[in-house]
Give the backbone structure.
Amino acid sequence: MLNKLIQVVLGTVGLQSALLGPPSLSNELQLGWVESQVESLLGASNDECSRCKNLLVLGNKLAKLNPALIPPILIRLCEKYNWKDDCEVYRDDTLARGAVGRHIANVLSLIDPRGVDGTNICWHFGNDACEFEMPQFEPHLSSWWGPRPEEPKSAGVKSEGTTFNVLHLSDIHIDLRYMEGAEADCNRYMCCVPESVNQNSPDKVVEPAQKLGTYHCDTPQILLEKSLAHVSSIASRVPFDFGVFTGDMISHDTDRFLSLSLTLQSEHECYYQMKKHLGDLPIYPTFGNHDSYPYAQMAQNSSGFAREFEWNTDLSSRMWRDYKWINEEQEEQARHTYGSFAVTTKSGLRVISLDSNFWYEENYYNYWNISNPDPSGIFRWLTNELLQAEETGTKVWLVAHVPTGGDADAVPWGTEVLRQIIVRFSPHVIAANLFGHTHADQFGVYYDSSNVSSPTEADAVSVAWIGQSITPIDKYNPAWRYYSVDSKTFEIMDSHNYYSPLNETYNVAEPKLEWKYLYSARKAYDPDREWPDDAPLNATFWHRAVKTFVDDKKQRQVFFDNFSRLSPYTRVCNTDECIKQMRCQMVGGTVDEIKLCLRRP
């Protein structure tokens, strides 16, 4: 019911009488008063949506009057309603320390509790207490651009049959607290760290963390270094023009042990190791949802709280410039666009790195001003870049962390805005979209159609390439890839994927991480060579691949083998339910489209 709302967003929100009594009351008395108000509101006889919004009204007033009370109220409510374990597991003791609680208070002070903000907060955090409401962005959104040109300037560019190579790394999640021999089969919090415990065997380790890395744990430093050493060895034979890193450097550790200091240290170590092993190769990074402190939080300039996160953009952009990945002008741009920037490579391709935290569902700042398609200004900045590229005939790659569809944990309103942008500028401007976040080897197809249950090949306009993770935390093998790219059209001709079977290093006296070539996308997903050799792996190719995966059991298993990189935990997907979910995630360009697809027969 409403417990998740109270646990996560603050179940201390409520009625118009909720001015917390006289301002002269002590904090302890105010806490008691709010607690009684919450109890009264939860027991009210009105419908669940109204109760939830009444709670938000109280929270809005409280956050404006005394925001410092938000964290202790959260803790008290968790204890009162026996949610203490859930609250701690969610982000451990962050609320007690105020790292996230302060930002919840910030957002509560901004929201319209009875409008679309309140509706969708209660939908998401209140377990469907209210029905989801998609904001109506038209005609505002389409005013950002005119109609797609009938003869775009890029249309005259033809392939000459030459290619170059681009590296794609994603989701490192380095764990600087990883400890060999620690419990890898833990029941709570992060595994493979000193505090890890299996509650069924508290005095004896059930599954010891391995030297080079362990399934269900994040990346030890040695795994990162050996992964990048392998990338470097391949680069000596297959030169890369540049690389992209689609985010997430910080571990999944609980906030009891995460800190600003550890966040900074982890970011520095990841960037340093990339530079150390890859030398002068330009790397174009983007922020992941873990690449902030507190976890996932990033405020828009319009919120009035953006300065609390400037340390991250300032530090990262300066490091990118120091490593000569971007220049001084791009550093300045990144500092003023939340770490986003645009750079033209030596081949003439425009790479736009975009901060996806503005459509990530656990960034609380995405739950105010929802009716505005662009509270951060990042989408308008992107469309201006794309309009300029359209005018000059320049091709663009978009690089971000959180995909708009799949199982990406994104908010429907933000992903719908980005979907419309991608569809408007594809394929004549946007040649590729690169993401990470899911840790799996995946892809998604964007369609210029609202018919998500049965989109047609003619409607397929663009592709989301979702890169594999280095971290084995989801029981996937560590992996990375590079793309073979047409030198003129900048379309992706193939992807080449490498992995390391981590289980082969288990319980070995002197383990060695062996890297193997896993697959070529062109060969794996077109085994009968029906697709022309000189044609790119575009949206049409992947639309056909989706149909093959649905109809052909053998090819579907090839996809899932690659999905988890031949992990011992690779799943088999043969039930109607599994196949439908797989298909919807591949063809649903946004969170909302996927849900519509899953609901239809």
